[in-house]
Amino acid sequence: MNIAIIVGINTDAISEERFPKWLEDIDDKTFNLSKEKWGDTYGLASDVGIAYYVKKFYKGNVDILTKRDISLKKFNQYDIIFGLFDPYYYTHSMKSSDAYKKYNSIIKNTSAIFCQPLELQKFVLNKKLYTDTLHKNNIPVMDTISFLIKDNMNSTSIINKIKRQCNVWGTNTFITKPQPGGFGIGFKKWNLEKVIKNDKQFKSYLKKIEKQVRIEKPLLLVQDFVPEFENFYEVRTYWLNGKYSHSLGTIIDPDSLGSSGFEKVKFAYPENEYDLKEFKTYDELPEKIDNKLINQLKAMGRKILKIIPEGENGEMFLLRIDFGCCLNNKNNCRDYFVNEIEYLPNVFPEYNTHIDILQKIGKAIITKTNNLKKI
Question: 123-139+228-343: which CATH topology?
């Protein structure tokens, strides 16, 4: 099979001192295709690390492409294309909704099989759609209201509707985030009383949201603020070719969300996936997550995989389902809920060296390629 992998995310990197042995011989030209600047040094972005593994170990032809190669003529030269740099990344790189339409059109019209499939991408980018879909299938999600992002949004009307909803939720604190989102862009926690008393900051926020590139169904999402979310680990479960791979717990400093610079993250790992020898080399020794919780989330994840679109030929090869704590219910032990679904997630290669996450995803791509070859 003649395959291509598109890179260029320039984030989610691994430092050279943590390179696995198979990655140590990467050449400078390939390294520079996607890298993240860390002060005076650079880390290798996860997409190039994955692509390099596939190119090195797959027995067919593998080309590593960049955004300059996104064209129908180029795509038609391949049997399968893995878009680790996808329409969403391309849109924000080009700062244009036309770029999104162009990339989608190429995917629709190319003779190559494109992974991840468009139906999965569109489903996940529309968070309101997938939360409503999961709710209908008895999967726990946060109650969410939304407002169409458009020019000259009516702040007074929006605040009044948020006020009524906060009364239903029994809260004085709410969060907002735009859809499609990602990277903490537009995430904001609000005090309702302060917003009602002085809406200047909220109006300014709406103006910034209005200026963002609009793709798919652009919505401003509003949810109840869950105080436990800042104190308990959000469990990110990874699924490769439809099977559970591993989990990673994170607590992100809320003050670092939606701001410039790096998010401040604290990590944890499931008890049965914990590697003390490896973790002793990290800056901070991570905590452990109870296996009972992981097993519960894995069971829920398997149900979710049956609900979301995976492509006509089962093209989906990677998924991350994030579970947050905790729903506001009457249970003594509050329930985790689905917070996010990501089809091209950050894989945290700097903090998943104990399982060599780049190799794992590279192997999943090779397996997916071989399976698609049989179709």
Answer: D-amino Acid Aminotransferase; Chain A, domain 1 (3.30.470)
